[in-house]
């Protein structure tokens, strides 16, 4: 084995842990805690199909295997040596008889040690293009799209509000949930508090993600599309208020200056009733609160380590309790919540299935998913992302500096012989 490989195979389990941490794959520290350097370089794809490694990463260990292959680069050099030592060709030296009858050693190329200078070209693999390019420009475009859809939603709510029939003229529609549960006044505040907690948890988690640009634009694309769909469903069918407790703000009857002030107030308050910004009616089918409660949970679960099961269950409970409180407050019909949950989960699963399968990023006769209207933007945002994005984390701030453990440095790839 070449010199570097000798050093790797002699690594202790502690040194293996340090190497995993320094290379931003700390999620493997627990399943590989007893592995030596020899065990590390012997890992194969089959090992990642079995527990516990199969539960660590969704990329089947491809990233870690690629890093291990880098450690094995010395094999590549060994295969190209072909009898060469330290970049020179060894030439055999024999005694030759000179004219005076005495034997002496020949000097080749003026070098008495018997080596001949000759440069050797060792083919090295070209640097690979990153599988997960950041492309922050695309993320910014996705953010602008989501922002536009949110603003358009507030405009639609203001327009639909003018069309809502008075509750005295058109009473609430029958609802099976309302028939079985009396209204709880404070329940909707619990829903919005749960939603703010989930949004806060997701934002902190997103900040710590290594590939936050890719994941961020996925979030913006999905949430923007969901709110765009909501604009359509709200506008085409205006439902009466779901309860007699609603106190809708007065109608403006074409006063566009007042419309604009009302829209700005709704945007500034984040569309939340708890902030006092949302007192309009008509935005029922489907529930925007359910969209946020569901989508934040799905992203939190998808991009956090599988071993944090307690964290997943906590976020799931916050989401479910929030949706139940929407209905308990009688602020949305049951169909509003059901439709919102269905559309949100399906769009999330469709998008990620397409993003994780390279063949689905290419339009073809057999790829029926390519017929959705947002397929071209999807291709633009995802075409350079190769494979499943790892759940990798790193500290994104310059302070405080976290302890990264003892570093192992190599001054040369091959030791002198």
Automatic annotation (TrEMBL):
Residues 11-74 form the SAM domain. This is Phosphatidylcholine:ceramide cholinephosphotransferase 1. InterPro entries: SAM, SAM/pointed_sf, SAM_3, Sphingomyelin_synth-like, Sphingomyelin_synth-like_dom. It is an enzyme of class 2 (transferase). The chain crosses the membrane at residues 139-160, 186-207, 219-237, 284-300, 309-329, 335-351. It comes from the Eukaryota. Belongs to the sphingomyelin synthase family. The gene is SGMS1. Keywords: Apoptosis, Golgi apparatus, Kinase, Lipid metabolism, Membrane, Sphingolipid metabolism, Transferase, Transmembrane, Transmembrane helix. Pfam families: PAP2_C (PF14360), SAM_3 (PF18016). It is a multi-pass membrane protein. GO terms for biological process: apoptotic process; ceramide biosynthetic process; sphingomyelin biosynthetic process. GO terms for molecular function: ceramide cholinephosphotransferase activity; kinase activity; sphingomyelin synthase activity. Its main location: Golgi. GO terms for cellular component: endoplasmic reticulum membrane; Golgi membrane; plasma membrane. Its EC number is 2.7.8.27. It comes from Eudyptula minor novaehollandiae (Australian little penguin). It is found in: Golgi apparatus membrane.
